[in-house]
Amino acid sequence: MAAKKKTTKKAAKKTAKKKTTKKAVKKTAKKTTRKKAAKKKTTSAKKSDVPLVGIVGMGYVGLPLAREFCLGGAKVLGFDVNPKTVSNLNKGKSPLKHIPSSDVKEMVDTKNFKVTEKMNQLGKPDALLIAVPTPLTENREPDMQFVEKTCETISKYLRKGQLVVLESTTYPGTTKELMLPILEKSGLKAGRDFHLAYSPEREDPGNKSFRTATIPKVVGGYDKKSLDMAVEIYKYAIDTLVPVKSCEAAEAAKILENTYRCVNIAMVNELKMLFDRMGIDVWEVIHAASTKPFGYKAFYPGPGLGGHCIPIDPFYLTWKARQYGMPTRFIELAGEINTDMPHYVVMRTLEALNDHKKSLKGSKVLVLGLAYKKDIDDVRESPSLELIELLREKGARVDYNDPYIPQTHKQRDYDLQMKSKKLTPKMLQKYDAVLISTDHSEYDYNWVVENSQLVIDTRNATEKVRKGRKKIVKA
Q1: Known catalytic residue: 309?
Q2: Which residues pair with 397 in a beta bridge?
Q3: N or C: which end of the chain has fewer CB within 10 A?
Q4: pLDDT value of residue 472
Q5: Structural domains for the chain
Q6: Which of 151, 247, 262, 309 is catalytic?
Q7: Which residues pair with 398 in a beta bridge?
Q8: Residue 418 and residue 405: Cα distance in Å, rounded?
Q9: Element (H, E) at 163
Q10: Helix H segments across 279-403?
Q11: Which helix (H) or strand (E) holds 29?
């Protein structure tokens, strides 16, 4: 009887092992599907079978996507209105720090990648992916001019069988309500003559844990055929695809992702202001709360929101909600709190200088970090830009340092005309206050505090600094 039990146990163990092995194989196969399929296509398929993917906009979304399509075996024709961008990319030079020029050069050298300003070539690609800016107007309403102009241009050259996909973040309904009527000016009908889809970008510049290919991608189609075609195209570039039933569902998913972050960041920003009055360190509180292994996710305060999504997307949703007669008070309040953060930081700087018997007017302030987050060269919607303007309005003399941004460039709302100052002990000592706006890893914060008169820390960057803590004011 004992022997039988032993044998049964052994057999069960063997069966369990087989099941585990099968699961592991299945899991691995799922991860490598795109790469294996791409390799097969590039080695055995005819050149005519390899898709030509057109990407309109060679920026923070378009270029990383182009790289993944090239790596997956597709050919890419990029479109951009900036002649300098076109010229540099065709020479193998990357305009983005996190996309090495060596990658772009390889794409160009293998003749899988070319960029053009000539929009009359829009009819050539099998699929056109639109990755253009979707900012806000001064009244915080969607500014869709770049999407509209792109669609107007595409409609002139749109041909039968082409797929058009919007990648830019937008409000639910954009693809069908805005894009569709413009594209159908071509005389072609969506679903019959051409295909239409929406697939929101999920780029996170500087994030070393993920790259474009490994971030699951949501895809929604105008109809089933459009969805199927979009999924087939994206298989060349993305490891995991998440098809949803409509363009609206895909648009709403992107808005949800960013509104979720916006609301939670607003909460900790408000708690930061409250806890400061109570004499409590909000960063210590967040760290303590983070030890709970379930039901809590940490979000962190800062000098304001930056980047191309979180400061903008919630306002897209609130604008759309008004069309349905529903005010989104919770979301709008979160937007207001986050928008007000640069003003709070300036007020704290003013108070800190007052404590040192100095006025903000006439004081010299150095802003450390211009990028909207650490270790990247992206200044889109960066709170540092507004901080500089607000400090100037108060009469301060402002400089900045950023190891990734040697000088400012003219932007939609800002033209600061500044150059990054070189950091030296003598240089730091001449400033009345040093304001840490972006916590780049390259900065030696012990050294910064040691050589500064006063440090305003908006990122808890000086947490591990032990000497000179009386000089540090958190904001």
Answers
A1: yes
A2: 364
A3: N
A4: 97
A5: 31-245 (3.40.50.720), 263-474 (3.40.50.720)
A6: 309
A7: 365
A8: 10
A9: strand 163-166
A10: 282-289, 313-323, 329-339, 341-355, 383-393
A11: helix 2-44
